[in-house]
Design the sequence.
């Protein structure tokens, strides 16, 4: 009972978000669950005293602010916020339209910015809180035919690192989570997974076919990830960076090893850019 909290969770109508709020409600926590259609949440879970389901447009700061204000007015405060909402769209940089690219950034990145911007005043005032931002292994390694998703998820990591430095003086914790492949409905989008006008030469369909074949056999268990999020929310010193899944650990570790090797290879050029100091200047 002592660990019960008020949670604000975006993207709560499916996947990890839905799994998480089910566990939170089972633990008698209070949950503000947001999605593009709150009725979807209520149909799945029913109306409960500890559940506030809200329709929110994450790309609209006013919509997010109203949701945060409703959450505080209903439950008194917020202890943990989870920026979980997001989607992907496959296609090369060349093929994706400006609108397709920007819409993904609006939800995956600026949606999180809007939530943070509107919850931080409450966290700052109460001198406590935990902001959990869901990124991806694609936030550490860019994959071809997924440029907008990678860009948004890289940005979420940088945002989280900056926020952690800003929020520490207010006793507010920040964790950015990078999952590998988990058995959710994330890949159940069919043709909606591909940009409107893919360029055949980039072989986007090959990637999509491989992902569809993987669907249903991902090794990650979303319930175990949700339980891990609840566990870190009760820690005095939770991690800033948290990889989820052995596949995430392997991919990110190999990427960093390759980066370090590349940095060492090109260190002569890296170290060649300082202004040359003359002998007389060095004496002074």
Sequence:
């Amino acid at each position: 009972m002592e660990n019960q909290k008020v949670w604000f969770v975006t993207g709560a109508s499916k996947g990890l978000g839905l799994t998480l709020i089910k566990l939170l409600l089972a633990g008698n926590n209070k949950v503000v669950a947001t999605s593009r259609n709150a009725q979807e949440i209520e149909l799945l879970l029913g109306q409960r005293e500890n559940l506030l389901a809200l329709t929110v447009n994450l790309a609209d700061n006013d919509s997010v602010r109203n949701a945060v204000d409703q959450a505080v007015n209903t439950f008194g405060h917020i202890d943990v916020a989870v920026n979980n909402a997001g989607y992907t769209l496959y296609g090369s940089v060349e093929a994706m339209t400006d609108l397709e690219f920007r819409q993904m950034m609006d939800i995956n990145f600026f949606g999180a910015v809007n939530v943070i911007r509107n919850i931080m005043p409450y966290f700052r005032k109460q001198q406590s809180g935990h902001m959990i931002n869901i990124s991806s292994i694609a936030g550490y390694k860019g994959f071809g035919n997924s440029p907008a998703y990678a860009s948004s998820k890289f940005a979420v990591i940088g945002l989280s690192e900056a926020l952690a430095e800003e929020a520490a003086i207010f006793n507010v914790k920040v964790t950015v989570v990078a999952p590998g492949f988990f058995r959710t409905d994330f890949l159940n989008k069919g043709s909606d997974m591909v940009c409107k006008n893919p360029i055949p030469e980039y072989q986007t369909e090959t990637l999509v076919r491989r992902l569809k074949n993987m669907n249903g056999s991902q090794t990650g268990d979303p319930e175990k990830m949700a339980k891990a999020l609840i566990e870190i929310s009760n820690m005095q010193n939770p991690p800033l960076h948290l990889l989820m899944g052995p596949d995430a650990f392997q991919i990110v570790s190999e990427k960093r090893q390759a980066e370090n090797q590349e940095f060492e290879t090109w260190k002569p050029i890296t170290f060649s850019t300082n202004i040359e100091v003359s002998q007389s200047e060095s004496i002074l």
